[in-house]
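Lab notebook page, bench 4
Experiment: in silico fold of construct C2
Operator: M.H.
Input chain length: 777 residues
Purpose: comparison with the prior construct
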Amino acid sequence: MNQPVAPSLLAAQAWKAVGVARPHESAELHVLGQATYTDDIPELQGTLHAALGLSSKAHARISAMDLTPVRNSPGVMAVYTAEDIVGTNDCGPIIHDDPILSAGEVMYVGQPIFIVVADTHDNARRAARRAVIAYDELPAIFTPQEAKAAQSYVLPPMHLKRGDYQAAFESAPNVVKGQLFVGGQEQFYLEGQIAYAIPKEDHGMLVQCSTQHPSEMQHVVAHALGVHSHKVQVECRRMGGGFGGKESQSALWAASASIAAAKLRRPVKLRADRDDDMLVTGKRHCFFYEYEVGYDDNGKIVAAKVDMTLRAGFSADLSGPVATRAVCHFDNAYYLSDVDIRAGCGKTNTQSNTAFRGFGGPQGAIAIEYIIDEIARNLGRDALDIRCLNFYGKTERNVTPYGQEIVDNVIEALTAELEQTSEYRARRAAVEAYNATSPVLKKGLALTPLKFGIAFNVTHLNQAGALVHVYVDGSVLVNHGGTEMGQGINTKVMQVVAHELGLDLDHVRATATDTSKVANTSATAASTGADLNGKAAQDAARQIRERLTTFAIKLYGDEDGVPVQFFDNAVHVNGHVVPFPELVQKAYLARVQLWSDGFYATPGLHWDPKTMNGHPFSYYAYGAAVSEVVVDTLTGEWKLLRADALYDAGRSLNPAIDLGQVEGAFIQGMGWLTTEQLWWNPAGKLMTHAPSTYKIPGVSDCPEDFRVRLFDNGNVEDSIHRSKAVGEPPLLLPFSVFFAIRDAISSVGGHRVNPPLNAPATSEEILRAIAAVEFAA
């Protein structure tokens, strides 16, 4: 016989602090201009300013260097070279092949050679340009194609294979072969690279910097200064954007500022000018693909081979993990039975490329989407039908090439829902009718899906810690290892803690990420920030709640079968409703511990980098998008008319923040694939190194009709409140824009020719593809 549920239990079940839309915790500060970024921190008396002297050659030995003009420049206090680094001259995150300052051989245009410290930022920058440096130039490699031809790699190439690709390919009724180039992308964070180093007693150093990885900055600074990590404290309250560009590459700036500050025993700030930032730092890896795929007469893929070459730059940085994720995302949402997937990290005399939102996943997945697009056109079929035909299954055809079984597959249902709500079939017919009567303007339409694995590929990085303090007035302070870069991680973690303690959000505050509070943190990356740190904070808050529960029962007794409930800013125990601050005050007087640390490590992960096999991901996020564009075939100009996106955020912790993340990722990914072109001149200098020459999307590039929704789907894994990550996966949604543009170009030749469209699909690239289609048709 069912027992009636007590009213207090019903109220507790109805109350929640997670799963509800809440403003970003710093939203008001952002709007009022009161949010403190690193450059806003009041400067201490005696603060000096640093700038970096950069190489003007792509690959050369320094034969002579006269820094006298630099030292004699107005306001200059000191100049330091590699010889002045007392510790380790290295800022490489994995392989130690990335010097802080060049020690004699420069590897790209923009490589730092010396640090100049002056009384003002402008004086330091001006002085840095006055060095007289003589070079003996050496041969240089700039493109991934050149790197592959020369077998020039920063790491050994990797290879993943399953089944018998060659036999399957040779027996396939149809084959498609080709090449594709997809360019890189500048992170273009609003706040540039910056570090403020403040010497402390006993050779200590406080470094306040804009970084996604405070613990890595702590390690690099400690090594450069030749001290133990406990001498270095790194703090970051917030960043004005990171997008991966401040995961490893903030180390150069933190180390340089700290080296100067340690030498001079004075605070030193190093704030990169936008041009210097773009010249020095790495970007999203560009990829060169060579592929061959076998498929049957229905369009089902039976064999797939791809060889991907990345432009790694001059050092390894994070290219190995990026390539690994690209290999593990080549399948995207499709079952591939027999595969041969190779990836090489090409060594080039360019900036050392690094993390960027998606971290190789988008570069891996776009290749199979390009291939499916070609298969569909070869068969005269709608590409959506070919995509659906090749989707992963639920009970069979559900194991990835790297051996992970997919247990949460919702891609078919999600795609079907989007197909219906976006009116895809009717709009496809309307596009065809429009193109039949429009000789110059051509419309294109595409629906593309995504499957994205969530976790660091390196298993040990999937851990996090947190501290939660409850003060005597009932207010709560939380500190965790994640960094806030505008994505809302602090808001989500605050909601988790508030929910655990039954409090409204305004009772909880998050503080700056600080290596002296939570140690050995992982980078806020791989879309794991809320997953890991939310779980760690929940663990800490739960321990406090359990102590308060035990104490409340001592005071008020225990009602059989009715648990103590924390909700609506009160504790409900044995018929008593005790305001949370009142119980906390009594607990303090009774010497109950009101703070706790929390820890979380993602279970069930394993990965063998040699065999490229294992269970590297905790779960998968899914999504799909439909884009409709119009292309001017005379100018190559285009416009996104409408975009429909459906994203699987699980049980969203904060739907408002998650929707914003999807929208932002869509536009950022659209920029990568259409307008954001990186161009180096023949001497190897990056010429697109400022807003005047590098085109990110603006408000006018957003579609007037932009429909974004979250898919109703709880996570099958025990993630934080069954939510799913939302940082990186949505960046794959604008694949639909690229393929809609390709669809429009294809219509010029009656869809009989596969347009050779590379990314970014700039107006020039679109015109080139149109000309190729017209010639072939």
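Observations: The mean pLDDT is 97. Residues 58 and 727 are 34 Å apart (CA to CA).
Next step: discuss at group meeting.
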